[in-house]
């Protein structure tokens, strides 16, 4: 759902040039003289006024000169995708999961209409959760069994020296996987999508 545009932020009587970026979790404006950010959720509201996108956060308003796309930005801000939509999970899909995922995540998948399979060869989407480099290496024997074109999400703990995004990308490249997008899995974990190159 990412959107990005060069624009002007209007704060009171001041007008600042910069870049506005929207992802599934937040809206951020970055300029030389002004920076601003808001997490999407109940405390952040949005409306369009002609060509302006007006955001209210904690009782304070900021306007952005978006142009005719202002209404589209409003809809994206007010209706961010849920986690499973961001991860590309579809109803009726067969998923393979490594150990370590919470019962609440598994219940979320099943409630979404996905089913869990025991063999990675039968998965249409795979999730591998790791907490350190050793666990990452344990994926090697399974990698060859993942069907071509099937997406793999590697999920790892944020902010720990035990494993980093660089470690994840290094192993994926070594095993012949092409990188896709990244997504915040939850408050404690990051994730990156890969697929075996055909």
Summarize it.
With 198 residues, the protein is an alpha+beta fold. The protein folds into 2 domains: 78 residues, Pleckstrin-homology domain (PH domain)/Phosphotyrosine-binding domain (PTB) (PH-domain like, Roll), CATH 2.30.29.30; 113 residues, Vaccinia Virus protein VP39 (Rossmann fold, 3-Layer(aba) Sandwich), CATH 3.40.50.150. The protein contains 6 helices and 13 strands.
Write a concise keyword list for the protein shown above.
6 helices; 198 residues; 7-stranded antiparallel beta sheet; 21% helix; 2 domains; 6-stranded mixed beta sheet; PH-domain like; single chain; elongated; Rossmann fold; alpha+beta
